[in-house]
Amino acid sequence: MNDFALRPAGGSAARPSVIQLVFREKGALYAAYIPLFSEGGLFVPTTREYRLGEDVYLLLTLPDDPQRYPVAGRVAWVTPANSSGGRTQGVGVRFPVDEKTRALRMRIEEMLGTAIQSSKPTQTI
pLDDT-based confidence at 12, cuts 50/70/90? Predict the structure, then answer.
């Protein structure tokens, strides 16, 4: 069951990679959202190799929201292939500290509501 879509939109070593991240269901957004980062962040499943601190540009679409949100984030952790516990390979992207992203974080947290406090497992730390 595919409840979100991930499409690389190109990139090179000179520029941050661009990833279109489309969440179709709130459950997928819950599984990817990282409330432990004070600025907010998202887990991005990917087989591409990233380094800590690397810039990543996300084009984010939330469930039932036609708007695309651009986020210039940074890789804050890496889950490598074949990680213990069957964790999905990918990266945790920390949101930047700015007003636009603060509004996005509030939108995500409003959308998730009380689910954000759930003990249900996620793809994040």
Answer: very low
- Is residue 23 within 8 A of residue 63, CB to CB? The reply is yes
CB–CB of 62/23 below 8 Å? yes
The H-or-E segment that residue 99 falls in is helix 99-112
- Beta-carbon contacts of residue 97 (< 8 Å; ≥ 6 apart): 39
Cβ pair 108, 86 in contact under 8 A: no
Burial class (CB in 10 A: 0-12, 13-18, 19+), 20: middle
pTM: 0.79
Residues making up the chain, counted from first to last = 125
What is residue 50's three-state secondary structure?
A: coil
